[in-house]
Design a protein that fits this description.
CATH class: Alpha Beta
Mean pLDDT: 91
CATH superfamily: Vaccinia Virus protein VP39
InterPro entries: Methyltransf_11, SAM-dependent_MTases_sf
Order of helices and strands: HHEHEHHEEHEHEE
Largest sheet: 7 strands, mixed
Strand content: 25-35%
CATH topology: Rossmann fold
Number of domains: 1
Domain Methyltransferase type: 55-151
Keywords: Methyltransferase, Transferase, Ubiquinone
Shape: globular
Radius of gyration: 16 Å
Strand order of the largest sheet: 3-2-1-4-5-7-6
Number of helices: 7
Structural class: alpha/beta
Number of strands: 7
Oligomer: single chain
Organism: Granulicella mallensis
Low-confidence stretches: none
GO biological process, one term: methylation
């Protein structure tokens, strides 16, 4: 049994929410391997145009950054994550893009973003929104940093098939579609769409499972 497989559910949940050290790196690499196909589809669905400024919230180890930048000419990418371990790893894996000024990685939270108003054409996250204890604050910040008409796209766990450890005491806050729609609208988003999507995944033990997730789109 490997180190990851030996993690207690609460420890696995903690590393998903805020990866730390070598174990955190291993956990997020496993998540990337499990979700890479669906993540590529999400990035393609952003519909980025040449010259777009894009923010990813919770970029993990940054392995999806080249995929984002490769969607169109002259994409400028910024990533925001609460984990110093992930910031360092993403900068390491994307050193050439950082040196070229095409990618930047920041330490911070969705509730308090270090960006001016109307900085981005698109803001997205994959598997992050279910960690927000104050989603109204995070969504309000997302709308603030988006340019008028800009796209917000969030993907998060569905309560129906969420892992047993995805509970508030472990830092997970699951909400239904109606609540997510209400939260988006309450901070001024328009054209809000919350879709239920079924995706195949590999769980912590390496077994194939079916999960449902929410795909949430809205415009500033």
């Amino acid at each position: 049994m490997g180190v990851i497989e030996s993690l207690a559910p609460a420890d696995w949940a903690r590393q998903l929410g805020n990866p730390e050290g070598e174990i955190g790196l291993a956990v997020i690499e496993r998540v990337y391997e499990s979700n890479s196909k669906s993540s590529v589809k999400t990035v393609a669905a952003l519909g980025l145009n040449a010259g777009s400024h894009v923010l990813e919230i919770g970029f993990g180890n940054g392995r999806m950054t080249p995929e984002v930048i490769g969607q169109a000419e002259n994409i400028r990418y910024a990533g925001l994550d609460i984990s110093p371990t992930m910031v360092a790893e993403a900068e390491r894996l994307n050193a050439a893009l950082v040196a070229a000024g095409r990618a930047s990685f920041y330490l911070g939270s969705a509730e308090h973003m270090p960006f001016p108003d109307s900085s981005f054409d698109c803001v997205f996250s994959i598997g992050v929104a279910h960690f927000w204890s104050a989603p109204d604050k995070a969504l309000s910040e997302i709308r603030r940093v988006l340019r008028p008409g800009g796209l917000s796209m969030m993907g998060c766990l569905h309560p129906l098939t969420a892992p047993l450890f995805a509970r508030p005491e472990n830092g997970f806050y699951l909400r239904d579609a109606a609540e997510w729609e209400r939260l988006h609208q309450s901070v001024g988003f328009v054209d809000v769409q919350v879709q239920e999507i079924e995706i195949p995944q590999i769980d912590a033990a390496g077994a194939q499972v079916k999960r449902y997730v929410f795909k949430m789109e809205a415009h500033a």
